[in-house]
Amino acid sequence: MTETIITALSGLGIFLFGMTFMESALKEFAGVKFKQWIKNSTSSTFKAVLTGAGATALLQSSGVVSLMALSFVSASLISLQGGIGLVFGANIGTTATAWIVAILGFKIKIEAFALPMIGFSGIILMFSKSIKLSATAKIFIGFGLLFFGLEILKDAIEVSAKSINIADFSHYGVLFFILLGFVITALIQSSSATTAIVLSALSTNLITFEMATAIVIGSNIGSTTTALLGSIGGVPDKKRVALAHFLFNAITAIVAFLLINQLNYLILEIFGFKSDPVTALAIFHTFFNIIGVLILTPFIALLAKYLNSLFLQKREIKTKYIHLVEPTESNGALIAVRNEVSNLFTKSLKYSLLVMNIKPNDIFSQKKKYTEIITHSRTELEFDYKKGYDILKEIEIESIKYLNKISQLSLLPEQTETLNTLYNSIREAVYASKALKDIKNNISEFTQSDQKHVTVYYDLIRINLIRMIDNILSAKQENLNIKVILKRHEDLSNENRNFVNKLTRNFEKEGIEHKIVVSLLNTNRTILLASNSFLEAAKVLDLIFAIDTNDEF
User: Residue 298: how many CB atoms within 10 A of its CB?
Assistant: First the structure.
């Protein structure tokens, strides 16, 4: 008996490894285009459900699709409503495993194809230099291992069936087997493995069809434990998607429990699958998930509205995007961190204007003339520049920590390159902000000066900063070519040199103290360096960033 248990566990282990290996290979094979298809296929609830079902059937993992849904919702690429639709559809797609196992696992001699599939695919994987071919080989290795493990599991259960009397379990009710299915799935963290065990037990007459359907219902609820456990301490959207997953499976299970006798009679007697209980179980599994989707899909919008009222953030968070997405899913995380770096860049531009006593809205939204802006910005603005810089530093630190977590994932070369550009943008934007913070005392001194010539030079410095920032903003607003932006910046830099020459030639006859001249030259130099850094930060972002004019800072 002990040997049989070890054999059964070994088969289960090989099955799980094959499933995981195939899932990983399918993710690698699917690539960015597959994820893009999922992202673009949620414009309606119906399309989201179909996409979730199709994607899960292809990837053989509802968990992967659920994580994609979570990632896209958190990154604001799709709505919570669309994400829930994907999760609902994934529950239908996950029944594909039961069909594959039922049709291929028990009706075809596995030894005839499983081991050769693993062997030939392994040879291809060893010698192939093609990424796609290698990924395909991995898929077939996983597929072969899955069925090889299933064959071992089935044989072990078949041996056990000879020493077990099914009548000994007949007095246990449906609820017991539902609980059993829940516990098994929660422990091994795989509804697919539970399905394989149940189908194996059913095929060897170890359990009855009624017991099998009850276990499958419990397995459906147990499959939500992975997402629920993973959502503990996670971001709000992760908790919302996990709760939506649990509610769907729990409600669907209740409906299936209430209709279990009717569904069993329909499939076995009306459809005539009494002599083929394995296929009948696959039909049952699909039926009650479809029933759940039909019942709950009309309420997705209402559910999304309710979930949005839950798990609200209680503490003030300075970051705008990255706290909404876990850094474990590279594509969604990269989108979130890019948005966060763009947010940091925009805030840095606004910070620089506030330090120079210029209202950012005058530049970002109203597009006033430079002289008009300066004329109406003579006084010191009520702005805590030290606190403002601390906010930028907090966003910088959190963004770098987030980038470091992403960098530990298995990334494509282009994703690694993207990380490097984001690091550079953060460094350049915060460097510019710090440089401007450090000359705030000079700015305050110029603002309070009653010397006309000092005020004129101070205004020229501020206009130069406005023009340089406006030049950067033009890239997005006017869709200008990078060469045009660089040429304009070069022209502005040349004008800046003219400013220096004018000041050094005329300060004595204009009666400006040497100390003030040095402060003006240092301030002007800092503005130029900060502008150069802002331009570098924008360049590595491809000059594409979100300008939130409603964001105070």
Answer: 9
Is 15 found in the same domain as 155?
yes
Compute the distance between CA of residue 242 and CA of residue 249 in angstroms, rounded to an integer: 11
Q: Do 377 and 517 belong to one domain?
A: yes
Query: Between 300-308 and 236-258, two packed helices, what is the crossing angle to 10 degrees?
Result: 140
Alpha carbon of residue 22 to chain centroid: 21
Beta strands in 131-235 (DSSP E): none
The pair of three-digit structure tokens given for residue 514, joined into one six-digit string = 């040497």
Start-to-end CA span in the chain (Å)? 69
CA-based angle 248:252:253, to the nearest 5? Answer: 120
Domain boundary among 308, 339, 370: 308
**Do 304 and 386 belong together in one domain?**
no
Spatial contact of 110 and 151, defined as CB atoms under 8 Å apart: yes
- Ramachandran sector of residue 205 (left: φ over 0; alpha: ψ -120 to 50; beta: rest): left
Q: Note whether residue 220 is domain-resident.
A: yes
Distance of alpha carbon 314 from alpha carbon 253, whole angstroms: 34
373 and 240 in a common domain: no
Q: Give the DSSP letter string of 370-432.
A: HHHHHHT--SPP---HHHHHHHHHHHHHHHHHHHHHHHTS---HHHHHHHHHHHHHHHHHHHH
pLDDT score at 543 = 42
Scored b (16 or more CB within 10 A) or e, 439-467 reads bbebbebbbeeeeebbeebbbbbbbbbbb
CB-side neighbour CA atoms (13 Å) of 231 = 23
**In whole angstroms, what is the distance from residue 236 CA to residue 227 CA?**
13
- The tokens for 319 are 């970051």
Mean pLDDT, the chain cut into blocks of 10 residues (553 residues total): 76 74 65 64 85 79 69 69 88 83 65 76 83 79 77 67 57 87 80 79 85 91 75 70 88 93 92 90 92 92 89 71 80 84 91 90 77 79 83 92 88 84 91 91 80 85 87 70 76 82 84 86 89 83 50 60
Q: Could you tell me which of 463, 436, 495 has the C-alpha nearest to residue 374?
A: 463
Q: Are 345 and 545 in contact (CB under 8 A)?
A: yes
Domain boundaries, position 185: 2-308
In sequence order, the 6+-apart residues with CB closer than 8 A to the CB of 330 are 406, 409, 410, 411, 415
User: Could you tell me if 201 and 336 lie in one domain?
Assistant: no
Q: What is the pLDDT at residue 105?
A: 63
* Opening angle at CA 179, ends 230 and 86, nearest 5: 45
CB 135 within 8 A of CB 29: yes
Contact 75, 321 (CB under 8 A): yes
DSSP structure class, residue 548: -
SS3 15: helix
Alpha helices in 413-513, H assignment, sequence order: 413-438, 440-448, 452-477, 482-506
Helix residue spans in 166-325 (DSSP H) = 174-188, 191-203, 209-222, 225-231, 236-258, 260-265, 277-296, 300-308
Residues 225 and 113 in one domain: yes
Rg for the chain (alpha carbons), in Å?
32
Name the DSSP class of 551. Answer: -
- Domain match, 294 and 337 both: no
Q: How many residues does the chain have?
A: 553
